[in-house]
Amino acid sequence: MQKGIIELEEMEFYAYHGCFKEEQVVGNRFIVNIAIKVDVEKPSKTDNIQDALNYVTVYELTKKEIQINSHLVEHLTERILTAIHEEFDYVDWVRVKVSKMNPPMGGQMKAVSITMER
């Protein structure tokens, strides 16, 4: 068995997550990074997409969850994590990091992020 980590890096979305009314109206940019540990032995030998984890599906699951508004980034991150595990029950481990860019903190800040894994 050959394990590998597939990473989808810096997927960018515009969404309306936040506790403040303004965030739910104006929206914000979100950056999502996902790492998924899977057995890559078969696809590395067959070169067949049917044998591999389809990361287009991972992107689409993420996009779907991003479009459902949440007050907390923790809630959004948990939903993405759960959606991936439900779609790909054979994965060993998933890590999801969601970053809210330029959060309304009353000062200059690049991002606030949460990382969850299971």
UniProtKB/TrEMBL annotation:
<dbReference type="InterPro" id="IPR006156">
    <property type="entry name" value="Dihydroneopterin_aldolase"/>
</dbReference>
<feature type="domain" description="Dihydroneopterin aldolase/epimerase">
    <location>
        <begin position="6"/>
        <end position="118"/>
    </location>
</feature>
<protein>
    <recommendedName>
        <fullName>7,8-dihydroneopterin aldolase</fullName>
        <ecNumber>4.1.2.25</ecNumber>
    </recommendedName>
</protein>
<dbReference type="GO" id="GO:0005737">
    <property type="term" value="C:cytoplasm"/>
</dbReference>
<dbReference type="Pfam" id="PF02152">
    <property type="entry name" value="FolB"/>
</dbReference>
<keyword id="KW-0456">Lyase</keyword>
<dbReference type="GO" id="GO:0046656">
    <property type="term" value="P:folic acid biosynthetic process"/>
</dbReference>
<dbReference type="GO" id="GO:0046654">
    <property type="term" value="P:tetrahydrofolate biosynthetic process"/>
</dbReference>
<keyword id="KW-0289">Folate biosynthesis</keyword>
<dbReference type="InterPro" id="IPR006157">
    <property type="entry name" value="FolB_dom"/>
</dbReference>
<comment type="pathway">
    <text>Cofactor biosynthesis; tetrahydrofolate biosynthesis; 2-amino-4-hydroxy-6-hydroxymethyl-7,8-dihydropteridine diphosphate from 7,8-dihydroneopterin triphosphate: step 3/4.</text>
</comment>
<comment type="function">
    <text>Catalyzes the conversion of 7,8-dihydroneopterin to 6-hydroxymethyl-7,8-dihydropterin.</text>
</comment>
<dbReference type="GO" id="GO:0004150">
    <property type="term" value="F:dihydroneopterin aldolase activity"/>
</dbReference>
<dbReference type="InterPro" id="IPR043133">
    <property type="entry name" value="GTP-CH-I_C/QueF"/>
</dbReference>
<comment type="similarity">
    <text>Belongs to the DHNA family.</text>
</comment>
